[in-house]
Each structure stands twice: as C-alpha cells, then as structure tokens.
Amino acid sequence: MKQLKDILYKVTINAVAGSTSIDYNALHFDSRQVSKGDVFVAIKGTVVDGHDFIETAIENGATAIVCESLPSALKDSVTYIEVESASQALAFMAANFYENPSENLQLVGVTGTNGKTTIVTLLYQLFKKAGYKVGLLSTVKIMVDNKEYKATHTTPDSLTINKYLKLMNDEGVEFCFMEVSSHGIHQHRTDGLHFQGGIFTNLSHDHLDYHDTFAEYRDVKKVFFDQLPKSAFALVNIDDKNGLVMLQNTQAKKYTYALKTYADYKAQVLENELSGLLLKLNDSELWTKLIGRFNAYNVTAIYGASELLGLEKVEILRLISELESVSGRFQYFISEEKVTAIIDYAHTPDALKNVLETINSIRTNNEELITVVGCGGDRDKTKRPKMGHIASALSTKVIFTSDNPRSEVPETIIEDIEKGVEPQNFKKTMAIVDRRQAIKTACQLANSNDIILIAGKGHETYQEVNGKRTDFDDYKIVEEFLKQLQK
Ligand SMILES: CC(=O)N[C@H]1[C@@H](OP(=O)(O)OP(=O)(O)OC[C@H]2O[C@@H](n3ccc(=O)[nH]c3=O)[C@H](O)[C@@H]2O)O[C@H](CO)[C@@H](O)[C@@H]1O[C@H](C)C(=O)N[C@@H](C)C(=O)N[C@H](CCC(=O)O)C(=O)O
Ligand SMILES: Nc1ncnc2c1ncn2[C@@H]1O[C@H](COP(=O)(O)OP(=O)(O)OP(=O)(O)O)[C@@H](O)[C@H]1O
Ligand SMILES: N[C@H](CCC[C@H](N)C(=O)O)C(=O)O
Ligand SMILES: [Mg+2]
C-alpha cells in the first residue's frame, strides 16, 4: 500500500506536524465518510468550513489531516499537513491516489456557458462510432465506455473524477470527454488532471450568484486554458469576444473555430431546417441532424477536436452525419394533431434566445409559438428578468412556471421573471406555478401546426422543491397530454 508521502506529490506544503511515512486507508473531504486510518482534507466551503470538522474526522478514525491552518492543539497520533489550498491539494492527492489515470488516456475538457454537454456527448458518440473505447463525464451521465453511471454534477469533485478515470483505465478507454464547469475550475476539481485538449464554446450570463462579476466568471474559465500543458490543444470559438481571451496565456497549441470570422475551422450554414443543418465546413459540405445555428458551432468544434485528436477528415464528416441529438437538447416530436413539442435545456438567457430564434427562423409565422419556462431557485437571480424578457418577446404566448424552485418560494421566482416582460408583451403571458398544469395548458392552447417549447429542464427527470426531488419528465408529460387531447 502507498504511504501518505506518496500521494502528496505536487502538493504545495507549508508545514508538517508528524510523520508522512505512514500507511493510510482512504482519502476523504467529508468528515462523515471518514473511518479508521483515513486521510481527511478540510475544505472551506460555501456553506461551512471543513476545518470545523477536523475533530469529528479524528474521532471517526482519521490518522492524517490536510488543512489550510493547523488546529491550535495537535494530537500526537495524527499527522497534520498545512497546505496552501486544500481543494487544490485534494485534486493532486486524488490524482496520485488513483495513479494519475488521466495520463493513460486522451482527456479533452469542454468549458463555456452553453454547449458543453452537447459537445462532449457528441464527441463520445463519434469516437464510439469510430471504434474506440470512450469515456464521458457530463451533466447528464457518466460513461465508462458502455457502462453508465449517474452524474450528480456537471464536473464532479476531484476524487470522483479520478475514480471514474481509473475505471476507464481498467476498461482500456482511450479517449475521455468531460465538461469543465466554472464551479469545477474555481473549486480546483480539475487541477492535477492531464488534458490533451481544451475547448471553449462561449460565455454569456450565468452563475453570477457564485461569481461576483462577469469578469471574474470569464477569468475563472481562462484559468482552465492557462493550466493546459504545451502538448495539449486549445480550440476556441472566436465569434465569441472572449474566445481570444482564453488563448492569451495558454501554453497549449492554439486553434480557432467560427461561423462569422476567419478561423482554422470555419463553417457556413447553407440550410437550417427542422430536419437538420447543411454546413460548409472548411472545404467540405456536411449534413447533420442537429438543429439550429448554435449547433453549427457545436458541430464545428467537434469536427476540429476530432481532427486534432487524429481522426481522418473524411471519416469525421461521415460520422458527424450519423450523430443523434443529445437527450433534452432540442429534442422534438410532432403529435398526430400536428403540434410540434420541443424540449430543450435552455436555462440561461443566451440559450433561450438561441432556441427561440432557431424556432422562429424555421417556422412560417402563421403558427403560435407557446413557450413554457421557469428559472431555478437558489441560483443566479439576475438571469430571471432577462429570461422573462426574451421568452415574452420571442414567443406568441408564454406560460411562466416552476423549474426546480429548491428552497425558494416558486411564486417569488415567477414574479422576478415577470419583471423583465415589457408592457406590450404582458398580454402574451400567464403564470401557472405547477409545471405539469403549465404544460397541460400549453397543450390545450395548441392547435395544428403550433409549436410548444418547454425550456429549462431538458433531460432532467425530477422537480426539486424544498430539497425533495419528485419524478418529473417534460418530454413524457407533454407527450402524454398531447395524446390525451387528441382523443
Ligand atoms: C456551490 C457549490 O458548488 N457547492 C459544492 C461544494 O460544496 P460547499 O462548498 O457548499 O460545501 P460545504 O457544505 O460548505 O462544506 C465544506 C466542506 O466541509 C465538509 N463537511 C461538511 C459537513 C460535515 O459535517 N463535515 C464535513 O466534512 C464538506 O464535505 C466540504 O468538503 O463542494 C461540494 C463537494 O465537492 C459539492 O458537492 C457542492 O456542490 C453543490 C451540491 C452544488 O449544487 N453545486 C452546483 C452549483 C455546481 O457545482 N454546479 C456546477 C455546474 C453548473 C453549470 O455548469 O451550469 C457543476 O459542475 O455541477
Ligand atoms: N453552442 C451553443 N451556443 C449557445 N447555446 C447553446 C449551444 N449549444 C447548446 N445551446 C443551448 O444551451 C442549452 C444547454 O446546452 P448544453 O446542455 O449542451 O450546455 P451545457 O454547457 O452543458 O450546460 P450546463 O452548464 O448546464 O452543463 C441547450 O439546450 C441549447 O438550448
Ligand atoms: N447546471 C445548472 C443547471 C440548471 C438547470 C435548471 N433546470 C435549474 O435547475 O436551475 C445549475 O445547476 O445551475
Ligand atoms: Mg452540461
């Protein structure tokens, strides 16, 4: 068994009390999981401070403590290690503990406000189709080649990431695609990982509850690129004004993609239909089942990354045309009454705007576009009026409803959303707190050829109210009501 000193490799240590030449069992950052002989890493969180649980961890059997400030009274039987950053230390220790699994596969991280899940899932699909064993760490699920695991975060904690990467090593996985969220970067969840590539999608309003300013949110994303090694590639969307910012200080090889400006990977939308997109990508034409201009960006990023990872151009084009849409991302069906229902995970102002603009560019304008949308509780409040404005300006009818109110009062969230509705659009809107009722009403209002957009929850199969999750699936519910109303 490895000793404590072995997993401290690369950790910036300020002080040590006790011996690091000791055996240990497991590594934990939650005192409640600690048992005899474990190492406890005390992390300052957003709610509590892990340092307050050092005593409990020792009572539970911890024989080593990693922390940012040593407790005033030290126990002889325990080794204390004072580090600069406990969450960063945890990331390096987790990587060492699992024997640096990221070095044994080609790991690509995707960051940006929107498009991460779409890109990593499609890259996973594409490399599977190309015959490789592939891993995926995403908001929707974790895949160790064909084996599926439940995802709890977009970017899990560093112990969890390394645990799955190790499983991928054991399974012979050659490529892994992972989402890198701004929370993940800020909390050092991805430190200590060896990336072969990084992709930047775009930056727009989100998480301004967690990051104080937009500039801070941007700079956190940039840290991911600053940390990429020379051997990696950095592929960024330069139609986004922050694309070049990401490249400013990176050592990685720099590549760009765009629809509007000259770039290494340049696409042009030739056709944009409900059945898919026809693109000109560099010199080739390419058909994809993915819908909407924003997906032209995603496809271009996928094309670029696949080429940078060594696949042949012709093969990439063929495989892209076979890709299926990602669960809850512009997923749609047409009922027997010819009502189109679209389920989309748009939960930011920019995503909602893109999806509505896409629908408006496809529809003939004789139909109604009925949008059902809400905003999450305990999340960025400033995006609520913006989403209210966008939904009401770009739809013909809007039903504001609940989307995971969490600990907040649902009516208050809806009031925040309504603050963004301009007077001329108010008549188009109504509020129905119960999401199921809201979807039902949308179905009752819809006539043949009308379009219903249900935004915000995408693949989610629950509604979270006061910390309790109950089953809820937008797709199934709208399908059920449209069938019922047909009879
Ligand atoms: C705001 C946030 O990101 N919180 C994450 C953070 O928790 P925290 O800072 O609140 O932790 P805390 O409760 O203050 O506890 C601090 C430390 O004390 C420890 N503790 C606590 C209690 C105790 O009895 N003993 C003990 O040791 C905790 O284990 C922790 O290490 O660290 C935890 C462990 O890694 C995460 O599970 C938790 O994610 C929460 C559940 C969460 O909702 N996160 C969301 C916002 C999130 O991370 N989202 C991003 C992406 C979103 C996007 O892209 O749109 C994601 O990557 O999923
Ligand atoms: N490249 C893109 N640009 C803008 N909007 C996009 C793009 N790709 C997808 N979207 C929109 O954003 C929504 C979320 O997409 P996706 O799940 O891929 O993003 P994400 O970055 O993984 O989000 P999260 O931060 O929740 O993990 C989609 O349902 C779609 O409405
Ligand atoms: N990763 C995002 C997802 C938001 C999805 C939306 N349905 C909500 O619950 O707010 C978050 O945790 O902020
Ligand atoms: Mg995601």
TrEMBL record:
Source domain of life: Bacteria
Species: Psychroserpens algicola
UniProt-recorded Gene Ontology molecular function terms: UDP-N-acetylmuramoylalanyl-D-glutamate-2,6-diaminopimelate ligase activity
HAMAP family tied to this protein: MurE
Keyword Endoplasmic reticulum annotated: no
Pathway: Cell wall biogenesis; peptidoglycan biosynthesis
Residues holding ATP: 112-118
Record family assignment: Belongs to the MurCDEF family. MurE subfamily.
Record-listed E.C. numbers: 6.3.2.13
Processing and modification events after translation: Carboxylation is probably crucial for Mg(2+) binding and, consequently, for the gamma-phosphate positioning of ATP.
Residue numbers bearing the N6-carboxylysine modification: 221
Enzyme class name: ligase
Residue ranges occupied by any Mur ligase C-terminal domain in the UniProt entry: 328-458
Compartments in which it is found: Cytoplasm
UniProt cofactor(s): Mg(2+)
Motif Meso-diaminopimelate recognition motif: positions: 403-406
Binding site for meso-2,6-diaminopimelate: 379, 403-406, 456, 460
Pfam families, alphabetized: Mur_ligase, Mur_ligase_C, Mur_ligase_M
Occurrences of domain Mur ligase central (ranges): 110-302
PANTHER family listed in its UniProt record: MUR LIGASE FAMILY MEMBER (PTHR23135), UDP-N-ACETYLMURAMOYL-L-ALANYL-D-GLUTAMATE--2,6-DIAMINOPIMELATE LIGASE MURE HOMOLOG, CHLOROPLASTIC (PTHR23135:SF4)
Residue stretches making up the Mur ligase N-terminal catalytic domain: 26-98
Name used for this protein in its record: UDP-N-acetylmuramoyl-L-alanyl-D-glutamate--2,6-diaminopimelate ligase
Residues engaged in binding UDP-N-acetyl-alpha-D-muramoyl-L-alanyl-D-glutamate: 31, 154-155, 181, 187, 189
